[in-house]
Amino acid sequence: MAITLPVYILDKEIEDGDWVVAQLQPIGIDARRVANVSDLLDESELRAPAVCMVALRPPVAQVLALVRELTQEPRFARTAFILLGPVQSKRAAFEAGADDYIVTPPDVIELRKRIRLYLDRAQLELRLVDETRITQEMAALSQSVFISDRDEVLVELPDGQAITLMEHAALIAQERNQLDAILRYAGDAIMLIGTDGTLHYANPAWEILTGHPASMTVGQQIDWPPVTADAAVGQAIATALARGDLWQGDVRYVLPDGRELEVALTAAPAFDLAGDLIGTVVVQRSIREHNNLHRSKSNFLADAAFQVRTPVTNIKMRQYLLRQAPPEQRAMHMQALERETDRLSSMVDAMLELSRMDSGAVEMAREAVDLNRLVADVMVRFGPAAEEKPIALTFRKNASVPPVVGDPAYLNRAICVLVDNAIQYTPGGGRISLHLDRVQHGGRGYVTVTVSDTGIGIEPEAVPHLFERFFRSERAHEAGLNGVGLGLAIADEIITRHDGVITVESDVKQGSVFTIWLPLDRTG
Q1: Residue 462 DSSP code
Q2: pTM of the prediction?
Q3: H or E element in which residue 240 lies
């Protein structure tokens, strides 16, 4: 049975501290507020917290000095210190020894995830230490085989209950089986390394993370700590291990096979029953996907700010000119204002659509979709726009194409993006054709939706970037065509969520061919 690990919130502000407690307790976290350091030390006398959250209150320098002292206290060797405060104090908090930092006001979901992460790590470390203890107790019991009647030998448990040696052995075996199941199915990579560098234990998640079977590595010496991308981080890990201290942080290092790992790593000392250091428990979780997502989010926000600035600037300029213009020119400026407002509105709508997809708020249906009917609907929608230009817009139905599994509304949206782009980038008198096909590729069956045009084409160096957010080719800029550079990103995201891809072939001044590939083996 898992031990409930306490979380203390050190905050002199009753209302704010109790608010944090109220967010954590409903998800089963043993959270409690302490008003001052004296109360924290008293509460930690018998049992130190797994996590101690400290609110940064003025004077901030005094609180940081306090955190620096607390992290050096032996009783808090295994406690993760998380500070809560304004963004400008984040760097100073880490310099003071904080393990993590949460910007206030905290997001409830992020707060809960962050605390749960540290509690899960602490639980796993305790379980692995228990595994070592159980192994030693089993070894000690195996040396008692010379006792003729083990059923009569009594063992006293910590709670004072007396049981026979055989009952004790059965209890230890049961506990070991429970721990083995927990460690085997844990999502984090866990290993136990001896003081001489020998790998004594590694769970399946460790095998998946490193790509090395435990059966070929356990019992051998490994390079630890690893050579990190930041030499200072590697040195900090080595120093902590040498002193038998806990170390936590994000690490980037290279495996012997050349693969690079980005992990959130916890290294905790493991002791035997006599209190002697026997090695280090290492818990790792890959954060590459999280970091990539964070970088994408930062880039997206930077690109969005840059792209929004242009229409906003144009709107301000037109407002100024409208106030100064004579009556006969006001209609012209109003039309320009309308265009820029529509452009800004389209951009915001597209950004919101992508944001909903990124956040997982969009759930796509899985039902049989008749692509012949779907494309026919698209033809009806864009027929007037094509006639106005004029462009010959044609669709060749294919009765042999079977239905695909997907969301009809979102598949319609993706095809509309391709047809809309084709109309924009094809001069009057050009042609756009759509057709469906059933093909085999790489041992899989696909239905393809192809949109071909005789437009201005795309320069070869721009093709790899077409599905990047806010990307627009030089030819699009030169032609003065409207657009925000998000349509293809949306279409690509939709098709990716249908386990498909979009491919592009294009020649400058000859036209482009966009093909959507949807797998037939996708189940509903």
Answers
A1: G
A2: 0.47
A3: helix 231-243
